[in-house]
Amino acid sequence: MEVQNLKKDYRTYQINIKKGHRLYDYFNELCLNSSKLYNVTNFYIRQVYTALHSDKKLQPLQQEVMDTLQDNIEKMNEIQYYSHQKRLTKEKLKPMAERKELKPNLFGLPSKDKSFLSYNFLDCLFKVIKQQDYYSLPGQINQQVIRNVIQNWNGFFKSIKTYKTNPKNFKGKPSIPGYLSRDRKKETIFSNQICKIQDKKFLRFPKTKGRLNIGKLATFPGEFQQVRIIPKYNGFTVEVIFLVGVKKEIPAQKERCMGIDLGIDNIAAIAFNTGHSSMLFKGGVIKSINQRYNKMRGFYYAALRNGKKPKEGQFRSKILIKLDAKRHRKMKDFFHKVSHNIVKIAIETNVDTIIIGKNKDWKQKSNIGKRNNQRFVQIPHALLIELITYKANAKGIAVILTEESYTSQASFPDGDLIPTYKLGNQTHHQFSGKRIKRGLYQTKSKMRINADINAAANILRKVVPNAFANGIAAVCSQPRVVNVR
């Protein structure tokens, strides 16, 4: 039972590659070829699937694919039979008692009952027809791309099955996996079998003499697993992944807790049940970043689209992509600092469980006014939650996400019951207090408390109802303000 709770613990480190780097062209070609192979693989699956599930006459492309399968099925089975003979030869070298009964895995043409092309079928087909995009990629990478397409189709079949039984959980009927756009580059993954650490300093990639200097990462005390090449902002992010061991799943003790309400003006409002004063992490930096970004993007986008028809001309430019990249880096830097400080405070106050409020589709269903909607939607709270979670877990602190309906309306000092919002249920709930102005909540007894701290404490109460059995004085006192730069 103990082994089942063990999870692999990974560390990921990123290296940014800009245009002009000696490996830029290599990564660019790899990702473009991966995108082409993805589309080719998806093309074969789609044409066969739609051809066999339609009563209409086959379209030219469908007929072409079906003819290709018909013309090459015998050659594919010859390869399968040859592989079977090799396996039989190896089995005959073993003692009689250890031999296994082997049967040739021969392919059959797809039918209406079995209209989905498997990974083994496609891999063998592309080898037989010498598919250009397949052979443009190093071994294992091309196979990984095919597996990715298969995975997406399996997800589609699973979604369709769920949709038929419970369509209310979906915003619309799931569609079959589509093609990647012509100029989109696809993420490429190198396993540790084809990408090696060399001379305790470099990453060596297949089919190129160029090497990537990763410095101290080459001697990182972990088992090197894989490298991901991710196209991003006209460049590439190289992610180097190490296995550092295994970790046990952290149980939520729910004794010394921290409740967090995420917002705009206060990026994080924190309430404790440990007797420590509440805290507010100000979000002015994020608002400033977004305000500057929106202003500059609006200016350059208007210049780019000036005089163009809705479907005419380009919609992106180098300067717009540069603006996006700069904003992303600033956001990530700020959230790393905020998450670091939150986890540091949790350690100093001996917190064992962090509870964060997050509603499903809270960005899509936001209704807090046009200006506040824009501010709220533009802040990547999910990134902050992710950073807090992995940093807290690394220190042995459990993190729980909970829905936060009515936490801003219910009065924490009055101990109001906090209901859960249900779609279609328009019940009007009465609460003891109310928000009298921005940032201030008034209770039944006319006591005033910071509105975000009130929500943070209610989020904590949603998960641990008796969390404040030892008193609420510390929560209701003036919160401490933290400005992270």
Automatic annotation (TrEMBL):
GO terms for molecular function: DNA binding. It holds the Pfam family Cas12f1-like_TNB. Residues 250-362 form the Probable transposase IS891/IS1136/IS1341 domain. One of its GO terms (biological process) is DNA recombination. Residues 382-459 form the Cas12f1-like TNB domain. It comes from the Bacteria. Keywords: DNA recombination, DNA-binding, Transposition. The keyword Metal-binding does not apply. InterPro entries: Cas12f1-like_TNB, Transposase. In the C-terminal section; belongs to the transposase 35 family. This is Transposase, IS605 OrfB family. It comes from Sporosarcina pasteurii. The lineage of its organism: Bacteria, Bacillati, Bacillota, Bacilli, Bacillales.
